[in-house]
Amino acid sequence: MKPTTESEAKTASQLDARLFRTMVIAVASAAVICLSFTSWRVSVGLLLGGALSLLNLHWMRSSIAAGLNLAINSGRPQFKLAQYVLRYFVIGIVVFAAYKLNLVSLPATIVGLCSFVVALFVEAFREFYKSIIHREEPG
Predict the structure, then answer these.
(1) Separation between Cα atoms, residue 70 and residue 46, nearest integer Å
(2) DSSP-derived 3-state class of residue 116
């Protein structure tokens, strides 16, 4: 759904920036902490998974936006499913190649790919905190 006002567009942009920033912080801190306690393959797996997660987020946002713009402008959906699914193949091939070359830990890479979930939880806690702090007292 396209933002209808400038305020909604600004809010959506701020949300995107916060999600991106939280994903970067989560992956970087997890990789640094793991580097201290585990092998370098775990840290590299976390970094690779996190980078692919960021790429996936960007790619998904742009492909969905392009599909919706085509659907809105032409009156019928012309969403190219191949572009939407292609990102999964690219991510799978990169992870498979890195694993076969023994560069990454597969579980750590999967955890890195889940950085979006961490960002969503952080955003949910942020919104919950704001709603508690800014709620109005009755009466």
Answers:
(1) 36
(2) helix
